[in-house]
Prior knowledge:
Layout: E1 2-4, H1 10-19, E2 28-32, H2 39-43, E3 47-50, H3 59-62, E4 68-71, H4 80-94, E5 98-104, H5 115-128, E6 132-137, H6 142-145, H7 148-154, E7 156-159, H8 171-183, E8 191-194, H9 202-213, E9 218-221, H10 224-233, H11 238-252, H12 262-267, H13 274-282
Parallel strand pairs: 1-2, 1-4, 2-3, 4-5, 5-6, 6-8, 7-9
Helix pairs in contact: 1-8, 4-5, 9-13, 10-11
Amino acid sequence: xxxxTGASGQLGRLVIHSLLKQVPATGLVAxxxxxxxxxxxxxLGVQIRQADYSRPETLASALAGVEKLxxxxxxxxxxxxxxxxxxxxxxxxxxxxLLAYTSLLKADQSPLGLAPEHVETEAYLKASGLPxxxxxxxxxxxxxxxxxxxxxxxxxxxxSAGEGRIASAARADYAExxxxxxxxxxxxxxxxxxxxxxxxxxxxxxxxxxxxxxEAMVYKNLPEADYRGVLLxxxxxEGLAALLADSDAGAAKGALHAEDPALSxxxxxxxxxxxxxxxxxxxx
Length: 284
């Protein structure tokens, strides 16, 4: 029995669909806050169980009979550590044989503001005594694809990444890797640094969008504070604007770059090129 937390999210759904190619639906458990949000998965035969990171009392019963657990990091930045600890405690109580955790690329040396909660979770996992494997996910290419409509409207792609190279991969690539690890034996103790096979600067991304769209466009690099202000002006919440600006500034320091083939080895193919993601974003 394999369970996936956050199964209603974009990554969780992709992991489940990857697993369904090799595992009977009855062997999968989708852990979600709101069971009614995953009726499509229920229709496929996947077990649906309520599990709320912030309500530890829901976790023990949700993990009954589960052998392997994928803990997808919470989306609530600032609340992640206590939420993850609650899941880890419940997993230990349930006798989980392997816990896979989606951490951050080079978490233990990353300058990103996202890193500390991942580092704290990794440390708690190590101290728990649970068999675990770390999936240190790099940047999702989709994080930048979401900015394309605005960039087309402005004639400029805005950011703070400078000449920093970004070795991102499609969300589906990371999902396939997670599914592969969950199906492999002897994974306890492994730490996977997962990143795309190729990298690009935001100027190169901008050039690719301009080429495919036929629209004139330039990359405009801004100081982190200015970029955060632009994001706030566009209506993003303070926390998200700060996170995105910090991540771009981190990219300028190499935080989103790695030359490690672990991801493509796990999925058995090259990772999705940035240009392919641009095509999908322009022609959904």
